[in-house]
Structure formats: structure tokens, C-alpha cells
Amino acid sequence: MDNEGFFQRAYGVVRLIPPGRVATYGQVARMMGEPRKARYVGFAMHSSPGLSGGVPCHRVVFADGSLAPGFAFGGPEEQRRMLEAEGVGFLASGKVDMRRFEWEA
């Protein structure tokens, strides 16, 4: 697999996620036509240039709304702060309220 090409395609999909919405790793993979490669989307997000490169990787979460424990740009606390700043709401469990904030592309 061409990692660089895959990563760039993943970044392209993630750039489409609007502020105030989140997508799952699996959702991004499906939108890329790679439904079994959610883990690779995670690798791409970990390697992304972040907001400075126009990739809002903080908007990608696990299917249950959990945040990435190794969020590349400051840990899950920073990811949560960034999402809350965009208006994303969280449940008492600390997970994103996926019913309200999951992006429906």
C-alpha cells in the first residue's frame, strides 16, 4: 500500500468535516472506498500536519464517541477542548454525543 497516497486521500476527506461535527475513523475509511482500513486512517491522523496543514484531525473520533488517547497534538484533553470550542457536545461519560454531532456526509 502507498502510505503517502492513502494519507493524502484521508486528509482530503477529513478536510470536508465541517466545524461542530465529528466523523469516525471507519466513516473516513468508507468515504475513501477503503472500508476495512479504519486503523490506517488513525495512522494518517497521527501523522497529519494538523490545523497548520489544513487537516482538522481533531474532528475524527472512535465509533463510540471516544477520543484518541494518543491525540497527536496535545492528548485527548486538547482534542476535547478543540471540539468544544467548535460547539461539539459531550455526554457525561466523556464521549462525544454522536447522535447529535456525527457528520452525515
From TrEMBL:
InterPro entries: ATL_DNA_repair, MethylDNA_cys_MeTrfase_AS, MethylDNA_cys_MeTrfase_DNA-bd, MethylDNA_cys_MeTrfase_DNAb, WH-like_DNA-bd_sf. It holds the Pfam family DNA_binding_1. The keyword DNA repair applies. Residues 6-88 form the Methylated-DNA-[protein]-cysteine S-methyltransferase DNA binding domain. It catalyses: a 4-O-methyl-thymidine in DNA + L-cysteinyl-[protein] = a thymidine in DNA + S-methyl-L-cysteinyl-[protein]; a 6-O-methyl-2'-deoxyguanosine in DNA + L-cysteinyl-[protein] = S-methyl-L-cysteinyl-[protein] + a 2'-deoxyguanosine in DNA. The keyword Acetylation does not apply. Keywords: DNA damage, DNA repair, Methyltransferase, Transferase. It comes from the Bacteria. PANTHER family: 6-O-METHYLGUANINE DNA METHYLTRANSFERASE, ALKYLTRANSFERASE-LIKE PROTEIN 1. This is MGMT family protein.
